[in-house]
Amino acid sequence: MSWPSLIILVPEQRRPSIEGRFRAFGLVPDPVTGDERLHWHGHSYRLDVSGGILADYEPDELEQVTAAIGEPYAVHVSCQSMDAARAFLREVLPGVDGLVDTNHFEILPASEFLALVDRHPGWDWRRRPSTDLR
Fold it and tell me: Cβ contacts of residue 134 below 8 Å, gap of 6+?
């Protein structure tokens, strides 16, 4: 299965804060993809902090996001494994007032997503919707 990925969405005015949070990890530009790479605690990650992932959203999805948080800014995060994803998200999501798009038909408030990750340590959002966990 491919690397787990998700999209963290925050209001555009919070872009400097969230982008700074990600850059503080020491992202390294990837000359091939244009994304950025991160090696952290023995795991590998690919990030796109450009906000360009929003171009992939369908109009109704973008409308849903905008209704929830206003004009969005997005960071696309790909992780080498679910363990890597959970570790990284536990580090970056606390205090984020925004949304998490699982890339599997769910967009959840960041705090709710993080609570589910903590309550269900083996949860793989690619295979099991959050509604099955409640």
Answer: none
CA distance 31 to 8: 23
- Using DSSP's 3-state secondary structure scheme, residue 131 falls into helix
Q: Rounded to an integer, what is the distance from CA 91 to the centroid of its chain?
A: 12
Task: Please tell me the distance from the alpha carbon of residue 74 to that of residue 1, in angstroms, as a whole number.
Answer: 24
Q: What is the DSSP letter of 4?
A: P
Report H helices in 1-134. Answer: 15-23, 59-69, 82-92, 110-119
The phi and psi torsions of 99 (rounded to 5 degrees) equal -130, 160
Instruction: State which residues of the chain have pLDDT below 50.
Output: none
Does the pTM exceed 0.85?
yes
